[in-house]
Amino acid sequence: MKTWARGLAGLLLAAALQPAWSAVEDGYELWQRYRALPPVTQSEVLVRALSILPATPMTPTLQAAVAELKRGVAGLTGREPAVSAQLADGALLLATPASAPAGLNLPWAELGREGYLLRSVKLQGRAVTLIAANTDIGLLYGSFAWLRAAQTGADLGKLDLRSAPRLGLRLLNHWDNLDRTVERGYAGASIWDWWKLPDIRDARYVDYARANASLGINGTVLNNVNAKADSLTAPFLAKAAALADVFRPYGIRVYLSARFSAPVELGGLKTADPLDPAVRAWWKAKADEIYRRIPDFGGFLVKANSEGQPGPQDYGRNHADGANMLAEALTPHGGVVMWRAFVYAPDAGDRAKQGYAEFQPLDGRFAPNVMVQVKNGAIDFQPREPFHPLLGAMPKTPLALELQITKEYLGFSTHLVYLGPLFEEVLRTDTQRPSGVTVAGQLTAMAGVANIGTDRNWCGSHFDCANWYAFGRLAWNADLHASDLAREWVMQTFTAKPGAVDSIVSMMTASREAVVDYMTPLGLHHLMGTGHHHGPAPWVDNLERADWNPVYFHRAGRDGIGFDRSPRGSNATAQYAPGWAARLARPETTPEEWLLWFHHLPWDYRLASGRTLWAELVARYDRGVASVVDMRARWATLQADIDPVRHADVTAYLAVQEAEARWWRDACLAYFQSASGLPLPPGVRPPERSLNDYKALRFNFAPGRGG
Ligand code: GCW
């Protein structure tokens, strides 16, 4: 063969062996890429989805379901199924009780309003796949579930899957401001283009709704809890109504954060006192106005008397007075109030105790359509917190769990930290109220603080989208396992190649423990930089309020480290059920991962490992860094399995993460060493720079502080 011909043949062979990466793997399509499946799976999907037989009547929601199935199957197999009215072999049959073929005996009642059933059946001699639900939204959820099954290796010829959410409300909370900045947002600007709304409806809004509906998220709070009253004015309500119109077919209701002082700011009243009849009338009229524009408006989310926000306490009233007033205005329309329990007053003692202290005594005093929304931990979305003592302690009050999807305290969007294990850990914890009832078992709703912005990949990094995914799936079903969700997400997002899937899943599941280790091991918390919350700053001791300073939380000195919340200290442990309280009262029976959250211990205290506290702390910081080094090495081996653009994106981010993990470790060890006065254990690498160098770092333009 001529040299040029050999060269050409070589090139062609190389091209044939190279996976055909699509040109647009930029993350925009999230877990809904629907790329061609491997041939065997592809033909399996093809036989099962030759045509779609929709239920009737053809509502916008059903249209969305059919469109998604067509798009999905076309992408996965290269052939779009026909929509047909004929029952044929290989049909996807969408059925409600009204449209189901006669003789079909299904457990309709168990599916509830939103649940679905997927089942392979023979009908009139034909092998079809049934997607059944009581409502068209159930059919949309079922369609997404079938597409997920098709992409994650389910046997499509033997489907028998039933699923219904336990929680009726599964929401995202956007901390988005009206000027499009996003408080604690690290993924660009707010996706809500308030200025151009209501006339211009960005195509992204539909894709946002599709992504959320695929998980079962059914509500979204559009604006920041640090709310401006303007969001309740007529022009902004028209904008919110436009979004509600886009989201409605996808089963997503719109909610707004309400500023408690709006009657003063917008209504010209002298007071926002919740017991004042004029104030109550103002809110009623406002609610009526909202429902005229948005008939299925979900309700209000409120941050009151917290971090400078107005609230009922400004008028000598309590949280129940405030929440019940809003509830009264919403009741005729079926709306709900989600009243946040994230409160802490200046110098009122242990900050961890304040939410419980203010809210628990009000149990039973809230109107039925009020939910108290509680963060997963008592301080603030730290890498690891013990569960909030309010969870389980208000049996007469519906509770919503607030989780933070955006990584305010976990390295922003540059660190790969999969939050599934964090969410799972909280949801599974036994509150012992009564024994065996987990946090998940205490809930009526779940809310996740969104990490979504205008970045092309939505979340600021490819892997951060897994956190949106895991939140949504767990809100639908809290019994799911974080590692299974990671697997599903990887198979839909990156690749279904088994070895690669295993590698990525193990990176993801290890990543949460890694961040705890390199930032705040052994129950430490709140060690981050002031204001922007980026990077380590355990030395900060000069802020106006005691409980804004890291030194308040870690209390490191020559004598030891940790916050004594035992009965000898602040006695925060007494806010838990008796079994937990007894266990947490003593360091020997406190789970090691929460040790310094509850106890102040001498540096030579012995841990289960046999090491002293000081040596263990150092070892944990080292383990965290090593884990990131390992993640980088694993990712490097996946180059052939991942499209080049996303592989390179993640590679670059992991390098940042490793550098920042080292920075956290070095700065914290330099500081804690100055407090303990102890030498580093033999063989341990000393911090790269001096403590003063770390203290001198400034980040004046860090993202996420909002407006
Ligand atoms: O953690 C703090 C955040 C604030 C946030 C607040 C809250 C919206 O730093 O940015 O404000 O929590 O949850 O209200």
Summarize the structure in words.
By secondary structure, this protein is α/β, with parallel strands linked by helices. The chain has three domains: 162 residues, Chitobiase, domain 2; 313 residues, Alpha-Beta Barrel (TIM Barrel); 143 residues, Alpha-glucuronidase, C-terminal domain (Alpha-d-glucuronidase, C-terminal Domain, Alpha-Beta Complex). It contains 21 helices and 14 strands. The strands form two sheets. Strands 7-8-9-10-11-12-13-14 form an eight-stranded parallel β-barrel. The chain has a six-stranded mixed beta sheet with strand order 2-1-3-5-4-6. Helix 11 links the parallel strand 11 and strand 12. Helix 3 runs parallel beside helix 5, helix 12 packs antiparallel against helix 14 and helix 13 crosses helix 14. The termini are far apart. It binds 4-O-methyl-beta-D-glucopyranuronic acid. The site of 4-O-methyl-beta-D-glucopyranuronic acid (GCW) has 10 residues, from loops.
List keywords for this structure.
707 residues; alpha/beta; Chitobiase, domain 2; Alpha-d-glucuronidase, C-terminal Domain; 3 domains; six-stranded mixed β-sheet; globular; binds 4-O-methyl-beta-D-glucopyranuronic acid
Q: What share of residues is helical?
A: 25-40%
Tell me the radius of gyration. 27 Å
- Distinct small molecules bound, one entry per kind: 4-O-methyl-beta-D-glucopyranuronic acid
For the largest sheet, list the strands in their spatial order.
7-8-9-10-11-12-13-14
> What is the CATH fold-level name of the largest domain?
TIM Barrel
Strand content: 5-15%
CATH class of the largest domain: Alpha Beta
Number of domains: 3
Give the CA-based shape.
globular
> Separation of termini?
68 Å
Overall mean pLDDT = 96
Helix/strand class: alpha/beta
Tally of helical runs: 21
| Main β-sheet description | 8 strands, parallel, barrel
CATH architecture of the largest domain: Alpha-Beta Barrel
Low-confidence stretches: 7-18
Please give the oligomerization state of what you see.
single chain
Number of strands: 14
